[in-house]
Amino acid sequence: MPRPKFTMPIGVDNFKDLREKKYYFVDKTRFIKELLDGHSKVTLLTRPRRFGKTLTLSMLRYFFTLEQAEENRVLFNGLDIEQAGEEYMREQGSRPVIFLTLKEVQRPTYREMIGMLTGTLQELYSGYRYLAASLPEEEAGYCKKILAGQASENEMIFALKWLMKFLEAYHGTKPLLLLDEYDAPIIASWEYGYYKDCISFMKRFLGAALKTNDYLDFAVLAGVSRVSKESIFSDLNNLNVCSILSYKYSDILGFTESEAEKLLMDNGVGDKMRSLKQWYDGYQFGDTEIYNPWSVIKYLDNNCTFAPYWLNTSGNVILHELLKRVDGERREELTGLVNFQTVKAMIDEGVIYPEIRENTNALYMMLMISGYLKAVRQYKDRNFIDWCLLKIPNREVLSAYKREILTHLTGRGGEVLLYNMLDAMTEGRVEAFQKYLRRVLRDMVSYHDTGDGESFYHGLMLGLTVLMEGDYRVKSNRESGYGRFDIAFFPVNNASPGVILELKAAKGITAEEELMPLAEEALKQIDDKEYIAELTEQGVKEIWRCGVAFSGKLVCLMGE
């Protein structure tokens, strides 16, 4: 496979570096025109990780900043914003700009978080040392405290607001604030257990900078989630939230289909578009179809090799939370998701992280916001409440669900055992299937788990089948013949065998031989109820039927 003709900007989020070093650039400078045509006092862009938020804010920084304005102007030669007209280019180099990222302000404790923020503000203020000579003594003393890392928490709260004041006084024009990953400390605080303390501080820190601040021209913030119910942005009437469901700026972050297609064509691999779509497309921002930009450029940089690149950039904490709450209803939904079916959720983009441990709807919304699900349809019910249908967007994200489900069920390193078990099941090797399933129960299941009876075993078997996606469609509790089968495996290719599993559970059994009558009863039920009817209608010629009886960690299979 030939290398791409252009150098891909892997990990390059500095707009100047990208342009000067001739990396491939997908022109998004139309966003500058759209901002100038009409922006709010504060604009919040929320998108999943690695969708170009930092690069976009860097682009705004180099366009608007008055520092090295002439040098920066050449960065925009030939781009959309230059072609939009001189009235827009007159805004280039016109303002002082504050660019701040909170990406590194993620620590295991609140004290460490404050310490990291102290260092971040030191670095920020060090870029404006020239202001000190023009400031009154008290304000110059404040700057020295920030620069020395000696400011108290209460003093740090006003760091952004006072810096804007100092810049306006010096330059005679109000500054632009660009704040990247504003919610990174909040997400970390939820993971590590100091959420309330973090929220209390961030509310005051961001509130001072954004709420009724006469020194601010306008601000653009970027993050993964919209944190609203904690009142971080309370009473901020001039906030415009542009989320993944918003139509405004919907094509600015991520690659549109035409941009992805041009990228492949420019690199001589236009014939890969169909496969690229299956792996990295599937996101819907507003009314725009979007490809994952990080995964697309990694794909090209790796000689057009498909892999879950985006999923390796951060942990899947939200998926962990989903799997912790797999009850009967969620089990059905999770199985459906892995088979590219949909789940329903009430639209509430203002969900907060603590809610996802209590509210399944909030969990699904956070999965959507974070990029693990996409909204395929939005609608209002008869009470005018907004709902959406959600599904896994593409094969890359599907691989995350598979990995997390397997890890949840088996721990690390159990995949080979599961592959062997599922191969035995689909090939009708009853004794081998029972041997491997016995090992799964012995090594991966607790006696405490089995107390829920048949519902537990049903969930276990469904979870173990995630490796079969692509070869089989797994259906559960579906009507067929004269009843409802427990689990059925519908082959994608009818030349492969179908499988019907009927599960039974008993308590107090001490030997597997005692489970044999129950397994026989389950097998007979498949035949008596004609559960194979739907498989037969699909044209499947070979169908393996299996009755499975469980008790604690014991299992007995009867198949034919």
Task: Chart the SSEs and their pairings.
Blueprint: H1 15-20, H2 30-37, E1 42-46, H3 53-64, H4 69-73, H5 80-83, H6 86-89, E2 97-101, H7 110-126, H8 137-148, H9 153-156, H10 159-171, E3 176-180, H11 184-192, H12 195-210, E4 218-223, E5 239-242, E6 255-256, H13 257-266, H14 273-280, E7 283-285, E8 288-291, H15 293-301, H16 317-324, H17 328-338, E9 343-346, H18 360-369, E10 374-380, E11 386-391, H19 395-410, H20 415-426, H21 430-444, H22 454-464, E12 472-480, E13 483-491, E14 498-505, H23 516-528, H24 533-538, E15 543-551, E16 554-559
Parallel strand pairs: 1-4, 1-5, 2-3, 3-4, 14-15
Antiparallel strand pairs: 6-8, 7-8, 9-11, 10-11, 12-13, 13-14, 15-16
Helix pairs in contact: 7-8, 10-12, 11-12, 16-18, 16-19, 17-22, 20-21
Please explain how this structure is put together.
- With 560 residues, the chain is of the alpha/beta class.
- It folds into 4 domains: 39-242, Rossmann fold, CATH 3.40.50; 255-312, no CATH class; 317-397, no CATH class; 413-559, no CATH class.
- Helix content is 43%, strand content 16%.
- It has 24 helices and 16 strands.
- It has helices at residues 15-20, 30-37, 53-64, 69-73, 80-83, 86-89, 110-126, 137-148, 153-156, 159-171, 184-192, 195-210, 257-266, 273-280, 293-301, 317-324, 328-338, 360-369, 395-410, 415-426, 430-444, 454-464, 516-528, 533-538; strands at 42-46, 97-101, 176-180, 218-223, 239-242, 255-256, 283-285, 288-291, 343-346, 374-380, 386-391, 472-480, 483-491, 498-505, 543-551, 554-559.
- The strands form 4 sheets. It has a 5-stranded parallel beta sheet with strand order 2-3-4-1-5, sandwiched between helices. Strands 12-13-14-15-16 form a 5-stranded mixed beta sheet, sandwiched between helices.
- A hairpin with a 6-residue loop joins strand 13 and strand 14 (498-505).
- Helix 7 packs across helix 8.
- The mean pLDDT is 87.
